[in-house]
Every structure is written in structure tokens, then in C-alpha cells.
Specification:
By secondary structure, the chain is mainly α. It has helices at 2-28, 44-74, 77-92, 101-105, 116-131, 159-175, 182-195, 199-212, 220-230, 235-248, 257-267.
Length: 277
């Protein structure tokens, strides 16, 4: 009997070890660039689950606010502090949408129509983006369609404004899929996701920008290529986009030498040597 018990014990340990290793690998390994193409975001079951998660988040916060009000009326300062800590934890915890608008929309939209309502939503979202102070440096100062990008990194970034901006950009894509602003919205959404470290999502949005408008006035190919190269280590695809960027986005580069050098490294030299920053 003891032998059987020992056998069960050591078998369980082995299974737990394997399971932990698989979980660690799943968490550590970044998703491939085509991971979103393998999903079915429009499936009714996924939409229902995502909406349920969102509703329960709101309900959870509402209940915390209720119990805080109760403790405020009873003067229980200790428990008020407990609730405040839990509310702060909620504010600091990432809240993913799970249904990504760029994923749902697909690659076949075309940015072509001037739609005043879409322009209004986009303008408000862009205003929140600018006021967040999230301005990325790019190789040279270029006056884009709506905003200039100087060489600096912000000291403070308002994540709340960024989230409001992201919601607005997604609203443009969702509600006005033929608007001539959908490529703009996708590009800025990519920048926000890049800031938050969601690199695969950022690449998806950057791709949508030039898929929806091949002449988009943003360095979307270059931005996607850098993430694929430096963060996701998907260098075959990065190489293709570097080449397309040289061909179609050269206005953004004060010198093409660095990109050309990186292309040479990826095609013949050490791909890990001096990646583009």
C-alpha cells in the first residue's frame, strides 16, 4: 500500500512540474504575429463572454462603492481604507477588451469617405491622445495629417487619457468603417498599445493602417517592422516591412542608411547585431 501511495505521490509531482513548465513557457513566449488570424472574434460565444466580463467588472466596482458609502456613514475609517485600497487595485489592474476592433474589422476595409460624425469622434480621441503627452520620437520631425511628432519622450503620461483616446479610435473603426480616418485611428491605437507593451496588438493595428489605406500618411510599416524585429523576433516579416517602408515611407527617414544596414544584417549577417531602436 505504501508503495502505491509513493508512486501516486511522485507521479503527481511530475505532472505538476510539467504543467508549471508549460504554463511558464506559455506566459514567457510572445505570441506570433499571425496569432489574431487564428481567432474567431465574431463568434457569438466569445462576444457573450467578453460582454459578461465587462458587465461583472462594472458590477464589482459598483458593489465596492456601495460598501464604501456604508462605512462612510458608519464612520469606520479602517474599512474605508480597505475599500480604497481595493479600488486602487482595480484602477491599476489591466482591463482588456478581449474583442479587438482591429481584429473584428478584418483587413478589407477601405478608408475613403468623409464622414463628419466620424471626424468628430476622431478629433476628440486625438485630443485625448495629445493631452496624454504620449509622443514617440521618430527619425525626423514630420507634420502629419493632424499632429507633429517632435524628438522627445514624455516625463508623465496620463494612462486614463490614453484609454479614452483608444476607446475613441476604436469607436471610429467600429461605427464608421468607411471613414477616411480609420487608418489614422488604427495607427494611433497601435502607438497606445505599443506604449502599454501589447506588442502583438500594436503590430495588428499598424498593419490595419496600411491595409486600409496603402498611402496612409504614417510610418505604419516601419513601426510594425521594428516591433516584429526587436520585440516579437519575427524577423522574416520584419524584413519584408522594412523593405516596404524604404519604398513607400522614405519621407519619415532622415537617412535610410540604418534601415538598409538592418536589412543587410537580416539577409546575410548576424540578425541580432544592432537592431533598430
Amino acid at each position: 500500500m505504501k508503495k502505491i501511495a509513493l508512486l501516486i505521490f511522485f507521479t503527481s509531482l511530475a505532472l505538476i512540474s510539467v504543467g508549471c513548465e508549460q504554463h511558464r513557457r506559455f506566459m514567457d513566449e510572445p505570441p506570433t504575429s499571425d496569432v489574431f488570424d487564428q481567432m474567431t472574434p465574431s463568434a457569438a460565444s466569445e462576444v457573450a463572454l467578453a460582454e459578461s466580463v465587462a458587465a461583472k467588472r462594472l458590477a464589482y466596482r459598483a458593489e465596492l462603492e456601495k460598501i464604501k458609502s456604508f462605512y462612510e456613514q458608519s464612520g469606520n475609517q479602517l474599512k474605508i481604507e480597505w475599500v480604497d485600497r481595493e479600488l486602487k487595485f482595480l484602477d491599476d489592474t489591466p482591463r482588456y477588451r478581449y474583442i479587438l476592433q482591429a481584429e473584428v474589422a478584418g483587413s478589407d476595409l477601405r478608408a475613403r469617405d468623409i464622414i463628419p460624425k466620424a471626424d468628430g469622434v476622431y478629433k476628440e480621441a486625438l485630443g485625448n491622445y495629445k493631452r496624454s503627452n504620449l509622443i514617440f520620437p521618430i527619425p525626423m520631425l514630420v507634420e502629419h495629417r493632424d499632429v507633429a511628432f517632435p524628438h522627445h519622450v514624455p516625463i508623465y503620461v496620463s494612462k486614463k487619457r490614453l484609454q479614452r483616446a483608444l476607446n475613441g479610435f476604436n469607436e471610429v473603426i467600429e461605427n464608421y468603417p468607411t471613414s477616411d480616418k480609420i487608418d489614422d485611428a488604427a495607427y494611433y491605437a497601435g502607438r497606445i498599445h505599443e506604449y502599454f507593451g501589447d506588442y502583438s496588438i500594436a503590430v495588428l493595428y499598424y498593419k490595419r493602417a496600411f491595409q486600409w489605406d496603402s498611402a496612409t500618411p504614417y510610418p505604419a510599416r516601419y513601426s510594425a517592422a521594428k516591433l516584429l524585429d526587436n520585440q516579437l523576433v519575427q524577423r522574416d516579416e520584419a524584413l519584408e516591412l522594412y523593405r516596404e517602408s524604404l519604398d513607400r515611407e522614405d519621407v519619415y527617414h532622415n537617412s535610410n542608411a540604418a534601415i538598409e544596414q538592418r536589412i543587410r544584417q537580416l539577409t546575410g549577417g548576424d540578425p541580432n547585431d544592432m537592431p533598430l531602436e
